[in-house]
Amino acid sequence: MNIVFHILKMLIIRVLYNFIGVLLFNFIFILGALFNKKMRIGLKERLRVLKKTRIFLSNAEKKKEIILIHSSSLGEWEQAVPIIEKIKSYTDSYLFVATFFSPSGLKAQKQNVADFITILPFDGYFSMNIFFKILRPSIVIISKYDVWPNFLFHSKKIGAKVYLCSAEMADNSLRHKGLMQPINSILYKDIDAIFCVSDSHRNNIRKIYKAQTLYSFGDARYDRILSKSESIKGLKIFDNDNFTLIAASVWKNDCEILLPALVKLAGDFPDIQFIIVPHEMSSTLFSFITHSLENAKITVDFYSAFSKTGNYCNARVAIIDTVGVLAQIYAHTQLAYVGGSFGKGVHNVLESAAYAQPVLYGPRYKNSYEAEQLVKLGGAFTIKSSNDLYYKIRVLLTNKDFFTEAANISYQFLKESRGASNRIFEYLDKVHHFKKKGK
């Protein structure tokens, strides 16, 4: 009787999802594309994804199997890259296809990690059915959390093994609570194994995933960030070695807290210099930052202006109005403020840790496991106001031992957390028996 009830429940959920959920989502997305450029690009890419996939396969090596790696966007892709690199270094029996929900992920083409990169089709029953019948991957890797019902269903229908890597599910996540718990319990049954970033996330995922193949392997993104920091060529903004504070991935609500503190610090410490990197290239935000600082008699220059002529920044504050250079800039800074935590949640705090920097952010950081851990360990500090930020930075700047201890904690946390990509690769090798190169 329980089996019959379970099957009926599963059928009802799938029918409701396909006839109401998918249609409603697609309608909202298409409507949004009329007003949002990013959604418009995503829609155009989805209209030609099947054609592009067929063209790729017609020119691909027929003897090689396909590993499909799906990520929501570039951030999640970074977690998958070290796993792909491990597999590619060991075997040449596979082609790697990367799909993204967000069109920003298509920028990963520049990395030359995957053999083919495309947007993910809408999660309709028929569109996913055609996509997987064309592609026929033998292994499917989902990075972090972007799980779609028809994506999973048709992955299993063609016989692929499905893995969720660097999986996260915070205590406050709705995915393991209320009505979503039984729905996700059905959805996650199509996943063959889940590799979690920590024990706490594994315990939450256990509420919706009852299979024994649930592991705490760590976050492969740590491997990626450390690898990049060890090989990346730093980008120097100022032509000196003065102490530099970077405010990374900031929004307007961050700047409202940050800028008054920055003005005070500039007066107290004549040699300190600042780099501000907005999360999005917004002319409105650029103007807000510029006017706030210039009214306080602090000089400002834009990266696009001084870099065009091959010069360094001669102002007190450099505003980075170019995307894709943040990781390189961190190599020449000493202290970081990371934005987002006065909005939906803090952004990436690991890049600063890779360069042994103490890091500060606002009150909303529970979306990030590493942000929580760094606060507990003493490598990061949370702030509630502009005055709070000013005093905490002042303490760090005037107490060298305290600063050094926080910097070391930050770096050691990242260093000791590496190794997830090795553990994931070893698991996959045991299941799939990868053929070693040359054999």
CATH architecture of the largest domain: 3-Layer(aba) Sandwich
Helical content stands at: 40-55%
**Shape, please?**
globular
What number of structural domains do the residues give? 2
Contiguous runs where pLDDT drops below 50 for at least 5 residues? none
Compute the number of strand runs.
14
- Write down the Rg: 23 Å
Write down the CATH topology of the largest domain. Rossmann fold
Question: What's a quick, concise take on this entry?
Answer:
It is built from 18 helices and 14 strands.
Structure notes:
The protein is an alpha/beta fold and 439 residues long. It has two domains: 53-218 and 419-432, Rossmann fold; 231-416, 3-Layer(aba) Sandwich (Rossmann fold). Helix content is 49%, strand content 15%. The protein has 18 helices and 14 strands. It has helices spanning 2-33, 37-47, 49-59, 74-90, 125-135, 149-157, 180-187, 199-205, 220-231, 252-268, 283-295, 303-306, 326-330, 350-354, 369-377, 386-398, 400-416, 420-432; strands spanning 65-71, 94-100, 116-119, 139-143, 161-167, 193-196, 214-216, 244-250, 273-278, 300-302, 317-319, 335-338, 359-361, 380-382. The strands form two sheets. A seven-stranded parallel beta sheet has the order 3-2-1-4-5-6-7. It has a seven-stranded parallel beta sheet with strand order 10-11-9-8-12-13-14. α6 (149-157) links the parallel β4 and β5. α4 crosses α18. The protein is globular. The mean pLDDT is 90.
What is the fold's blueprint, element by element?
Blueprint: H1 2-33, H2 37-47, H3 49-59, E1 65-71, H4 74-90, E2 94-100, E3 116-119, H5 125-135, E4 139-143, H6 149-157, E5 161-167, H7 180-187, E6 193-196, H8 199-205, E7 214-216, H9 220-231, E8 244-250, H10 252-268, E9 273-278, H11 283-295, E10 300-302, H12 303-306, E11 317-319, H13 326-330, E12 335-338, H14 350-354, E13 359-361, H15 369-377, E14 380-382, H16 386-398, H17 400-416, H18 420-432
Parallel strand pairs: 1-2, 1-4, 2-3, 4-5, 5-6, 6-7, 8-9, 8-12, 9-11, 10-11, 12-13, 13-14
Helix pairs in contact: 1-2, 3-5, 4-9, 4-18, 5-6, 10-11, 10-16
